[in-house]
Specification:
This protein is an alpha/beta fold. It is built from 14 helices and 17 strands. The strands form two sheets. Strands 6, 7, 8, 9, 10, 11, 12, 13 and 14 form a nine-stranded parallel beta sheet that branches. Strands 1, 2, 3, 4, 5, 15, 16 and 17 form an eight-stranded mixed beta sheet that branches. It is globular and about 70 Å long. The two termini are about 20 Å apart.
Length: about 400
Amino acid sequence: MTTTLITNIASLVTNDPAQGDGTPLGLMTDAAVVLDGETIAWVGPAAKAPSADETYDAAGRAAIPGFVDSHSHLVFAGDRTQEFNARMSGRAYEAGGIRTTVAATRAATDEALEANLTHYLDEALRQGTTTFETKSGYGLNTEDESRALRIAARHTDEVTFLGAHIVSPDYAEDPAAYVDLVTGEMLDACAPHARWVDVFCEKGAFDGDQARAILTAGKAKGLHPRIHANQLSYGPGVQLAVELDAASADHCTHLTDADVDALAQGDTVATLLPGAEFSTRAEWPDARRLLDAGATVALSTDCNPGSSFTSSVPFCIALAVRDMGMTPDEAIWSATAGGAKALRRTDVGRVAVGARADLALLDAPSHVHLAYRPGVPLVNEVWRRGVRVA
């Protein structure tokens, strides 16, 4: 197996406090990394680097772990340009929102759905994302939910069953029957293709009792919970997430003090999705409040055609620093190590011996430039599983 020495790294974010400056970022200057196949074999000062089969000169760039995007909705067809244009123009718009995407997704072929998925995955990879989670949720019937998961599973291990995105239009007059479908026949068909189960716990979607039934049924099938919680209003989502040991409660925009305390005291990660607030002009989540309380925070794109059509983690980092009270250091940690914690992974989101060899080299001397130079394509090269892929 070929070893590769990446040297002349101006600054390296390791996310290992035992290295470098001893902060959560474990920041090292004038650093080097040795890749051995798909894993990292050595990290340290460039002057002390061991020899390797090949040497790559980072030319004074900064290096960071590959981004871990722990929340996306990438198996879909169509887009909702008119809806976005109307919202940004202050005009009323009466189209069907998620239902519009459901109709387009149901009508699409498997080949079209997979081509769309790989298009956005390639787009994200070029911007430094080396690990991603993605969900179903635009089929809302057994056949289309299960095929979405089968398609997603060909590209990632982090696949989430979200049959409970909204109540299917087919069951608009009988939501209880739809919950029965999601927790019965649909779950049976979908569980073999997923790792996670998710539910949109919100007014107009699923209430606390329905969400509990769906997540509990998923757990019984071996799926671990995550939950769309407290995005549009105060509600039971965060408390339910902590109670059920969900890996993450996602959005977390409207939180009581009790919600913040629960997240700080539990193992559930608060995953914040600033692209959604940007694209809907909604209230920003208060990351500072969560961090000061001791909660673990992740940043993710929520890439989807309706409310956050961005695949750019760097963009979300810039938003989090500008509008959510995060420091640049906190934002980069949340987009890498935080995302890994939201997926309960220890092999990604850090640069340490034994971790997966995922790195992004920036056309900048420091990770701070991701927030300092918003909108600039700073990701210069990407290494995933030890291979230079972008």
